[in-house]
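Form 7-S
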Amino acid sequence: MTVVHIEKREGGNPDTLRAKGRIPGVIYGPKEASQAISVDQKVFEKLWKEAGESTIITLEGVGEPKDALIHEVDFNPVTDVARHVDFYVIEKGKKVETEVPLVFVGEAPAVKNLGGTLMKVMHEVKVEAFPKDLPHEILIDVSTLETFESRIAIKDIPVPAGVTILEELDETVISVSQPKEEEETPVAEIDMESIEVEKKGKKEEEGEATEDTAEKSQA
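Output:
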């Protein structure tokens, strides 16, 4: 299990803490009073990449070691750098609920042979399990998607032992859409009758204009 060192945080300006290369955060849980802490930024970035929200980690540095999950991370919308993190301390002997990412593997025949497009409806699922049974990710093989009518639902996902998916069993996870046909722009038919009428009208107008000019000249 991954061990992460944290430090107790005694108020102060969070930006000052971030300038020192540390991320402010908080730890809490059913049996754990909320407490302000901080964690090294580089350590956390590596932890987030490897563990995500579905891997149990051990927090050390504030009281007794605590098993926890990364519960929520606030990222800077411009730099995408973590600026605050919540650690959820789990209760020993109890199941936990968390989101586990879905990883799609393989090649769908409906895409390769029929030119379809994969439609990923879900990218993660909520699961319940004891901490020791929590998977880091769930693999889904898309090679079963042979036609445009094929789909993979929650009930089709191979669930690891000890894990329960807390989603509607018939909910679609991924399917294949048909390629869109390019619509041809219809060519407007030429209305010869209208063109002839238009030409005739112009000639009549030109004739009237000529007559008016001649009358003015005679006057």
